[in-house]
Amino acid sequence: MIRQPQSLHSRLSFAALAAAALPTVALSAGAVLATMLPGAAQAQAQPFPSRPISMIIPFAPGGSAEVLGREFAIEMTKILGQNVIVELRPGAGGNIGAELVAKQSRADGYTILLGSLSMSTNVSLMKLNWDPRKDLVPVAGIAIVPNLLVVAADSPFKTLSEMVAAAKTKPGLLFFGSSGPGTSSHLAGELFQDRAGITLTHVPYKGSGAVYPDIIGGRVTMLFDLAGSAVGQVKGGKVKALATTARRRSPSMPDVPAIAETFPGYEFGSWFAMFAPAATPKDVLATLEQAVVKAMQTERLKERLTQIAAEPVPIPPTEFAKFFAADIERYARLVKEGKLDVLQ
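User: That's the sequence. What structure does it adopt?
Assistant: Structure tokens below.
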């Protein structure tokens, strides 16, 4: 172990003695100070990452974001050689956790965000104290995941058409739960009402996991849950899937029809991507991007993404940034056209 001198005066004295003892070696004062200051050598010798990384997931436990995020954390830990620790920071449609990374975290790569569709929609739907386009930078795109329209296993509705017919005869008397205002499960339901010409009553919850007991108990009619968490619930047998919001049926769920088969043109899904604070160094971003890409190429992640019918999005950060900007404009246009209401 190297014993560090106790003061600047002692460091300079030590340097002077060393120079006097070795007259053939020319040492500049700057070089001496750079090598003798505490921690300088250690900082230069520790490439990123040299300690655990926090992955902020801005949603409640049990949802697709947590399921997907934990899978990535496992693989990225192996790739980076440092623990990637998942931290759930739910609330305000994903804004609490996202703002934590954007405005309150150091831009050093040790705090990253698993972002999703709500970052596109909330720019237009909510009043934000931060701007995802300026305060965050994409690390890498991951995938678009569709939603599944699920009802209780003992629901009287066996098909999508039966449910729509009932909604038309009982406007506002069928309830759809969501994981919160502005989330994908909310938006999927709002856009579906518009496309199907029906009126449903929205019941927001704090996370999609909290909706299932009320669906099973008959207090809520349906939920447009992301496939990442819905698939497990369907396999558990307490709920059944009437349809997927993807453009077509998934090979992993061939018996679940697409809503587009009944209402052509309807398509919806939530994208996922990794973000970091905007001022994060480029070399750190490159290391994180490489870890995300390698994780996606593992058999574990490839199988998981296939199970939830995920479709690719642009992975490189520059390409994903264009995709992200276009998605923000898409929802801004829907708000302007009156198809989505601004949330209070």
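The chain has 14 helices and nine strands.
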